[in-house]
Write a structure and sequence with these properties.
The complex is a heterodimer of chains A (458) and B (625). Chain A has 458 residues and is α/β, with parallel strands linked by helices. Chain A has helices spanning 28-35, 91-104, 114-121, 130-152, 155-179, 190-212, 233-241, 284-299, 315-323, 344-351, 367-379, 385-415, 420-437, 445-453; strands at residues 6-9, 19-24, 36-38, 49-56, 63-72, 83-88, 108-109, 221-227, 259-265, 268-274, 302-308, 329-334, 355-358. In chain A, β9 (259-265) and β10 form a beta hairpin. Chain B has 625 residues and is of the alpha+beta class. Chain B is built from 21 helices and 22 strands. The chains are: A alpha/beta (458), B alpha+beta (625). The complex binds flavin-adenine dinucleotide, guanosine-5'-triphosphate and magnesium ion.
Chain lengths: 458, 625
Amino acid sequence: MENDTIAAIATAMGESSIAIIRVSGSDALTCVDHIYQGKNKLTTVLSHTVHYGHILDPDTKEKIDEVLVTVMLAPRTFTRENVVEISCHGGLIAVEQTLGALLKTGVRLAEPGEFTKRAFLNGRIDLSQAEAVIDLIRAKTDKAAKVAIRQSEGKLSTHIRALRNDIVETLAHLAVNVDYPEYDADILTSQYVVERCQAINQELERLLLTARQGKILREGIATAIIGRPNVGKSSLMNALTQENKAIVTDIPGTTRDVIEEYVNVRGIPLKLLDTAGIRETEDIVEQIGVQRSEEALRSADLVLLMLNHSEKLQTEDIRLLEKIKGFPTIIVINKLDLPKRIDYEEIRQRSGGKQIIPLSVKTEEGLSLLEEAIKVMFFAGQVDMNDQTYVSNARHIQLLEQAKQNILDVMSGVEQGVPLDMAEIDMKNAWQALGEVIGEAVAEDLIDQIFSQFCLGK
Amino acid sequence: MSYQASSFDVIVIGAGHAGCESALAAARMGCKTLLLTLSLDTIAYMPCNPSIGGPAKGHVVREIDALGGEMGKNIDKTHIQMRMLNTGKGPAVYALRAQADKVLYQREMKKVLEEEPNLTLHQNMVEQLIIEDGVCKGVITRTGAKYLSKTVVLTTGTYLRGKIIIGDLQYESGPNNQQPSIHLAHHLQELGFDMVRFKTGTPPRINSRTIDTTKMEIQPGDEEPRAFSFETKEYITDQLPCWLTYTNEKTHQYIQDNLHRAPMYSGKIEGRGPRYCPSIEDKIVRFADKNRHQIFIEPEGRETLEMYVQGLSTSLPEDVQQDILRTIDGLEKAQMVRTGYAIEYDAIVPTQLWPSLETKLVPGLFTAGQINGTSGYEEAAAQGIMAGINAARKVQEQEPVILDRSEAYIGVLIDDLVTKGTNEPYRLLTSRAEYRLLLRHDNADLRLTDKGYAIGLIKEDRYQRFIAKREAIETEIERLRRTKLTPNAEIQAQLAELGTPDLNNVMELANLIKRPELSYQDITKLSPSPNELSDEEMEQVEIQLKYEGYIQKSLQQVDKMKRMEGKRIPQWVDYTAISGLSSEAREKLQQVQPVSLGQASRISGVNPADISILMIYIEQGGRTA
Ligand SMILES: Cc1cc2nc3c(=O)[nH]c(=O)nc-3n(C[C@H](O)[C@H](O)[C@H](O)COP(=O)(O)OP(=O)(O)OC[C@H]3O[C@@H](n4cnc5c(N)ncnc54)[C@H](O)[C@@H]3O)c2cc1C
Ligand SMILES: Nc1nc2c(ncn2[C@@H]2O[C@H](COP(=O)(O)OP(=O)(O)OP(=O)(O)O)[C@@H](O)[C@H]2O)c(=O)[nH]1
Ligand SMILES: [Mg+2]
């Protein structure tokens, strides 16, 4: 099968914190060989065999991880292409780096659902799993979209938008020179295009530097603590972070806005979000806070819903139990040190059997159970933001690299005397790659730009 | 009051640019064809600029020609000048454009229609379609004639509920005061078609006796003879020039002062106009900082003194139009012989069509041309020939012919229409084609003649000439790949003479030609070809080798697309039953009913996950997903 080679994290972290990177495509073996050091070259081994070795950074030759590599040759594989699976042991960072190294060898990051797509296109799919696969695709894409949206509010996207703007102006100008040859716009010169490209290239390099430093990766699993006012959300946040960042009082409605904190819970990076207690309120400031909390809930990868052990379930609690349906959630019942007034059975029913952890932030009883529960959920793959976050990071890096290569191609083409309207093809590719980083639609923008930038027509 | 008239295989309604191609294609494919049109005096009429071709559009004319259509041949016979545009740029965007003699163009096309054996031409207004069991079976005219047929092609252009607007004045009319088509418009709506209201406009015309060309720049045709059609052997050498002048501060001030009388700004126009041909009032408002706009003065023909004022499209009141003309250099005394106007009309929302241009709603009914939301003669003709071909093939119980985006601009045009729809009159632009490097106008014949021949629209003798051309090109390319140049003193001297660096190693001629400073001619100086090649053949050899790298890149992208294009979506797919789809995707898919996964993936709002889910559903044979 002629097909470029793709890779992705195939599993959420396994129980034993092994992550598998799956590589598929005709060049899968040769590509992995570029970063793999073992007894034998993978291109020489038998199908369906497992090999021990190390992953090295192809540039620096530094060891990244100790791995087991499974080689499966076409056609007896899921995609009916050559498949290599790399089992990484070294945790999140190692997986991220291994994937990054792989992408340098010419492998492309798979799009959501792309393995399935290939399996289908190559005439093979496991029918019994079709439904599960659909759910997975849906979930992953929605997550990816969420990441894109989140990113689009950040700094990175501001830079990328500016870059795309630069490019699209040049593209529109070139298009006008082509489509309206008699129109009295200046004719773009090669020199101008090369200068434009140099500037764009510099900016891309700068962005790549920041991206490689892992700014985006550092995000962690967005974990929102929600609950009625005064149940102890801020207290839990402080307990987990071992800081007193959030203000804790016995006045309901203390927290007015979302507070973010990064913590490491049993090796898992969490971005904790302490939110304003959710309830109907007249206070404008608090209302805004409540709105933000609801947003935090919607963009969260994991929800910790907090209830009060010593109070009966209230209408607001019930509303929240409704809201969290469909989110990976742990129900935390706080103030275990106080007398019990809450009905566990009712919670179980209303939440559709979500996991319940009773604890007391005050006495720290049960706190470690919560930490363990988070970890288990993460490793069992129920929370799968983990790979999405850094995949999205790897993806961005790859797209930025690609855009950079495209821009370099424009320059070298133009310098070799290729007509601008041909070199433009590479420039358009750069523009599209950047569009993918921030999840922006591409097709019609250029045409819009042409007609807003130039006054054309009879 | 009605009577039963004769029966046909194919009926075409409207003899505009779309209708003419449709009717000719169907008749030439052996179908007994009837062409009904409002007036035999306006066959292939150009209501706006007297020109055919240009970037993307000129490519389309060549494609129509390669499929056996008429537009290229007709303009080759009837132009007043031709120019190759973009010659300073890459070969993918060279573009031929002709200024037409409008009257001659019409007369010539009428004659071709009249002479076509299988074709009956009749002047009449169609008011209704005959629909039986939801299938189109013929038409009924205003005079009560009931014509039966197996398929119908509707190409009524800007006539449906047409309304002309000039300042405060509004009246129901087709273009250039032709009769509008009112009944048919209502009939289509009753049948359940989704319609939109679009708008376009045209500038005033002036008498050339009353203009001063000494104040303008001359725009002559090319000296070198040019033609659109592969079949053209006689070239017109006696050409007429066009003229260029500019608007100025005075013009702009005058328009500003009279904006309140512009229907555009008083809200009298409801239709959506195209951005690429704004009226002059629109240009002045939207681009206020531009202190002049180009105005091209173009003859409408050899037998008339009427000149077209390109750049001055307007729906301002008549007196304002006259005064605007007077502010322009060289037009101070211009006599306005026709008033510019805007026209509003109904068009069909084109996502209601299959890629064959058959309507989804009424099997047997095809639509083509401006009625489908496009604008432009070439765009109309392109759809016309495809609709004609497919209407005929349906009669002959054959699969429709569908061109894909990597094959032809025609493919891009139709795919865009039926997949994405359009919210303004759609015009082709080179930037709409993702594989434009492959869709060059120089290789239109290489891309499509085989198809035209297989369809039955390219005659044997032409096909044989084409095969010979293709072989000559391939043989020569092969030779250049095989022939190696060894660096020796003689060769280096020759290279130096050609102004190119020495060779370091043995090199194939096919690689040497990639040096920007070398042309095919230069290469033959180093190593003459045993065969004699025509200019076009040499051009092909040069382009195909010189830009091989870029062409390869495009081909790889096409390969990827083709796989998705090859996955057909079966008829039984029920989008409501696929649970994993996002609701937006479901809605769009249901509306467009894409024929392949490739087409589905181009619908906005359908993301890769939806495509994967759809694949799985199809693979499962529709069992729950
Ligand atoms: C004022 C104006 C300005 C334009 N400006 C531009 C421009 O700037 N750039 C551009 O690219 N294009 C422009 N166009 C568009 C271009 O003229 C059309 O796109 C092209 O002519 C459409 O071809 P067609 O075959 O679809 O329709 P038309 O050429 O309009 O032909 C329609 C035919 O259908 C016939 N007909 C209509 N109703 C019936 C009926 N009920 N029964 C029988 N026959 C019927 C008519 O007689 C006519 O022959 C303009 C058009 C107009 C009217
Ligand atoms: N007895 C007992 N009190 C607790 C416990 N956890 C928190 N509290 C107390 O409950 C009160 C409210 O705690 P916060 O952490 O401010 O509650 P919150 O949910 O953030 O409240 P808002 O920000 O108002 O929504 C404080 O007085 C805490 O000291 C617990 O486990 N046991
Ligand atoms: Mg708080």
